[in-house]
Each structure stands twice: as structure tokens, then as C-alpha cells.
């Protein structure tokens, strides 16, 4: 089986063909956003980081921006910098360019303010969009797809229908040679012993356990019960009682494929198959992490109805909650409510999700892309703002 | 035959409601292909859980055949099992250092 994608100079295949406008620091967001607003065919990534952070987090910001810039869904990249930030802008620019795509840079303090930077950025972006418009979709093997797995605004339907069905779809993609990335380590807490048994080797299983312990210790260090934060208030209203219950449902997204490797946040996998990536469960950070790791499609299951997409990676919304399917129809792409009603089995629902992933990879638009519900993103940091 | 609530694993002591259930209703609880009836004693909202047997204080709560927490008070069969009578055993920074509740 194949899909229609954009072949990139580094050999990867994109499912979209945007010119990426990436802000390198929170203080450049206004200019980056304005350039993108004025140039069709661009996609803007805004965030709150890039300055007054510890070296550990600055490195995360550099790596995340590099990964985002290298994402195969971007034909080329315009970086928008303020000029005085901690982000290593030149290094990020060079590293993105290593993937063979065009990279341009606007520095607001050098250009002479926001108005001039917007004007200059718009002209550059126009040229880049015209260049990108000549690229055509070509037949690509499914093994080129890197799928992000995500659940959000979960309730008890999530673990019963959409998550195990997504696991079936992920297993099918992996059988075709593709890659799936499972994050949300907070939502392994209480289920890590099961996920560890899926690991390819004992050492990888131990890495999973260690990742969960690190996340749990971080959460516990504030001296409070995490309930209310995990599971969230909405999860609790949806019937989820503890993080253990939420996690046991959440890990079903990974299916039954062996876990081949464990990576830090935003790192592009060096192997195919199912991999685990460190990340929290919250949307802005996990979606960014998946995109920075090279995901070209994200499948996102939801119980109560999470609307967020991502700027340049299609996010497919799947629900098993019939009330959400009806009430939030403008945000939902696929219903697996028939599983809840007992008229469809998990395998059948998984097959439909897999077909949707292939269709979206070939260009079918998701509700989040159509509605433009994609902007509130951020990069996951672990240290204080200083 | 329709089911009103679902038990996922043989050893579970809670079921998940597949519709809003009123107090006093006799519902069909399904697990795999098996079905049995049970009287529900209080309102259970869609997606929420009830005890499928009497659960003692401090007894572990099982769903998916796995521990999802522990009862903080007795939970009678057919009554609501949620945050008011179940505590998590994980991420408990409120408990003294060393982690797990005693």
C-alpha cells in the first residue's frame, strides 16, 4: 500500500507542503504570526520559550525548533528571531538546512522593528510559497509515515473503544514498515508494568519504567496529590477516578507491537516501529514534541472532545463518546461509538482509523486544519523561568 | 441483548455504565458474551463506575484486571464508585516521602 506524499531532499516524505514560519522566542511571536496571516500557504508555530531559561531548557528549545523545521511537512522554513534571545538561532538555522530545505531568517532587532520585519518577512514568505507550490505529491510507501499517538480530554469511553482501536491501526502501520510514537509518560503511571512487557528487550522495558519514575517523582515533588491535575477535572467528570485507570486505557493506543526504543522529548526516532517518547500529557507540549520528532500525521482520541490540532501536522480526532460525536461534530473526524454500542468490534474500528490515516496522509483535510484550531502550542520545559 | 454496563475483566469489582442509570434500576451487566442482572442503588452517570459486589474499606479496586486504586470507605454493590470512595496509589506527593500509601 502507498500514499501520496511530498518527497523531501533528505529522503523523508511529508503529508503536507507548507512554508513554516517558526518563531524562535516568545518575543518574536507577534511578527511571525503577522507574516503568516498575510501569506497563504504558510503555517506558523508560536510558543512561550527561548529566553531566561536554564541551559537544559534552552537546549530543548533549540532541539525542538530544529526538529520542527526538519519536519517533512514543511517545504521550507522562515525563522523569525528577536535578536537577543537565548535560542541558538544560527545553529538551529544550520541544522534545519542540513535536511536540504531552504531556510531564511528575519531578525527583528537587525531589520529595524516589527513593521519592517513583517514587510520583509512577507516578501520572503511569498517567494518561498511560490517555490513550494511547484512541488507535487508522489507515490510513497506507507513505511514513510511517522504517526503520533495522542489521547486528550479522555473519559471512560477512551480506554474502551478509541484507544484500543487506534492500537489496531498503529499495529497495521507498523506491519507495513511505518513508525508510531507513543508519548504522554504521565499517562503510563500505573500501567508501566504492562507497557514494559511490550518492550523489545528487557533493557528497553527498564528504560520505560525509569522514564515513568522520573515523571512521577517530578509530579510528586510539589507535595500534592496529582489527582485533579492527572486525571484532570474533566477526566473525573467523565468517570475516570485515578491516574492508574486513565493510564490503563491510555497505553492501549500503542497496540501490541513491540516497543523498539525510548527517546527524550522531540527526538526523531532512529528506528522504525513503535517507540516511546518522553513528554507530558498536555496538548501544546505533546503535540509539539510529536511534530519535532518528525510525525507527519497525528491520531488523537478523545472522550469529552479536545479541539486542538497542530499548525502543520494533520491531527485526526477520534471519539467513542456518542454525546461528543454529536455535540462537537465540527471538531471530530471519526466516530467509533459503534464499538461502545456493541455493533462494531475493535478490529473493524481500527481498520477504519487506519484507512483515515492513509487518506489524511494523502491530503484529506482534518477538522482541526479546516477550522484553524492549531495555534496554542508550546515546547515542554522542565526547569524554572529565570 | 443490550448491555447497560460493562465489566472488562473477570476479576474486576467495578463496572462502567454505558448509559445514565437511575437509582432502583435493574440493569444488564455484560462481560464478554456473558450477561447478568444487577440492581443499582443510586444514579450512575454515563461512563461512571459502580461496584459489582460489596467492597470493603482499603480493598483494591480492579478494572482491566489491574489495580486502579483503593477504597477509602466501604462501597456497596450497585453504588457509585468514584473519587469520593476511591484513592489513587500513585503520584501521591501529599503523602510523606517514600511514596506509596501505607
Brief rundown of the structure:
With about 375 residues, chain A is α/β, with parallel strands linked by helices. Helix content of chain A is about 40%, strand content about 20%.
Tell me the layout of helices and strands.
The complex is a heterodimer of chains A (386) and B (102).
Chain A: E1 2-7, E2 13-14, E3 18-23, H1 29-38, E4 42-45, H2 55-70, E5 74-81, H3 89-97, E6 102-107, H4 108-111, H5 114-132, E7 138-141, E8 146-152, H6 156-160, H7 162-175, E9 179-182, H8 192-197, H9 202-220, H10 233-237, H11 243-250, E10 259-263, E11 273-277, H12 283-292, E12 297-302, E13 315-319, H13 322-327, E14 334-335, H14 337-341, H15 346-361, H16 367-371
Parallel strand pairs in A: 3-4, 3-5, 5-6, 8-9, 8-12, 9-11, 10-11, 12-13, 13-14
Antiparallel strand pairs in A: 1-2, 1-7
Helix pairs in contact in A: 1-5, 2-3, 2-12, 7-15
Chain B: E1 5-6, E2 14-17, E3 26-31, E4 34-39, E5 49-51, E6 60-63, E7 66-71, E8 80-81, E9 86-87
Parallel strand pairs in B: 1-3
Antiparallel strand pairs in B: 1-2, 2-5, 3-4, 5-8, 6-7, 7-9
Amino acid at each position: 500500500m502507498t500514499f501520496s506524499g511530498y518527497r523531501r531532499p533528505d529522503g523523508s516524505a511529508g503529508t503536507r507542503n507548507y512554508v513554516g514560519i517558526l518563531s524562535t522566542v516568545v518575543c518574536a511571536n507577534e511578527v511571525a504570526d503577522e507574516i503568516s496571516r498575510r501569506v497563504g500557504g504558510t503555517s506558523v508555530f508560536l510558543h512561550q520559550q527561548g529566553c531566561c531559561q536554564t541551559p537544559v531548557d534552552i537546549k530543548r528549545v533549540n532541539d525542538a525548533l530544529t526538529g520542527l523545521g526538519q519536519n517533512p511537512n514543511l517545504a521550507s522554513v522562515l525563522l523569525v528571531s528577536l535578536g537577543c534571545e537565548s535560542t541558538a538561532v544560527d545553529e538551529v538555522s544550520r541544522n534545519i538546512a542540513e535536511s536540504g530545505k531552504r531556510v531564511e531568517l528575519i531578525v527583528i532587532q537587525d531589520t529595524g522593528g516589527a513593521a519592517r520585519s513583517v514587510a520583509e518577512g512577507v516578501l520572503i514568505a511569498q517567494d518561498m510559497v511560490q517555490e513550494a507550490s511547484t512541488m507535487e505529491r508522489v507515490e510513497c510507501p506507507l513505511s514513510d509515515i511517522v504517526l503520533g499517538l495522542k489521547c486528550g480530554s479522555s473519559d471512560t469511553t477512551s480506554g474502551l473503544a478509541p484507544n484500543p482501536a487506534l492500537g489496531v491501526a498503529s499495529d497495521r502501520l507498523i506491519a507495513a514498515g511505518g513508525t508510531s510514537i507513543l508519548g504522554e509518560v504521565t499517562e503510563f503511571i500505573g500501567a508501566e508494568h504492562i507497557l514494559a512487557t511490550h518492550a523489545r528487550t528487557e533493557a528497553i522495558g527498564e528504560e520505560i519504567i525509569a522514564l515513568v519514575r522520573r515523571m512521577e517523582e517530578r509530579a510528586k515533588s510539589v507535595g500534592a496529590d496529582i489527582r485533579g491535575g492527572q486525571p484532570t477535572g474533566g477526566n473525573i467528570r467523565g468517570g475516570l477516578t485515578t491516574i492508574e485507570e486513565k493510564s490503563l486505557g491510555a497505553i492501549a493506543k500503542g497496540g501490541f507491537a513491540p516497543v523498539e526504543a525510548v527517546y527524550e522529548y522531540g527526538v526523531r526516532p532512529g528506528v522504525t516501529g513503535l517507540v516511546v517518547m518522553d513528554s507530558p500529557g498536555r496538548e501544546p507540549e505533546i503535540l509539539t514534541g510529536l511534530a519535532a520528532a518528525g510525525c507527519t500525521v497525528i491520531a488523537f482520541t478523545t472522550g469529552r472532545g479536545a479541539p486542538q490540532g497542530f499548525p502543520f501536522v494533520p491531527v485526526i480526532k477520534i471519539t467513542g463518546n456518542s454525546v461528543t460525536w454529536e455535540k462537537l461534530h465540527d471538531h471530530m473526524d471519526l466516530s467509533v461509538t459503534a464499538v461502545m454500542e456493541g455493533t462494531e468490534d475493535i478490529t473493524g474500528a481500527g481498520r477504519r482509523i487506519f484507512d483515515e490515516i492513509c487518506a489524511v496522509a494523502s491530503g484529506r483535510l482534518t477538522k482541526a486544519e479546516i477550522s484553524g484550531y492549531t495555534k496554542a502550542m508550546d515546547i515542554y520545559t522542565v526547569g524554572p523561568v529565570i | 441483548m443490550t448491555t447497560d454496563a460493562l465489566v472488562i475483566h473477570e476479576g474486576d469489582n467495578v463496572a462502567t455504565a454505558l448509559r445514565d442509570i437511575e437509582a432502583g434500576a435493574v440493569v444488564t451487566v455484560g462481560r464478554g458474551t456473558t450477561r447478568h442482572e444487577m440492581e443499582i442503588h443510586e444514579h450512575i452517570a454515563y461512563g461512571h463506575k459502580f461496584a459489582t459486589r460489596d467492597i470493603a474499606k482499603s480493598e483494591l479496586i480492579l478494572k482491566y484486571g489491574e489495580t486502579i486504586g483503593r477504597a477509602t470507605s466501604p462501597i456497596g454493590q450497585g453504588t457509585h464508585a468514584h473519587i469520593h470512595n476511591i484513592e489513587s496509589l500513585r503520584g501521591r506527593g501529599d503523602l510523606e516521602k517514600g511514596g506509596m500509601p501505607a
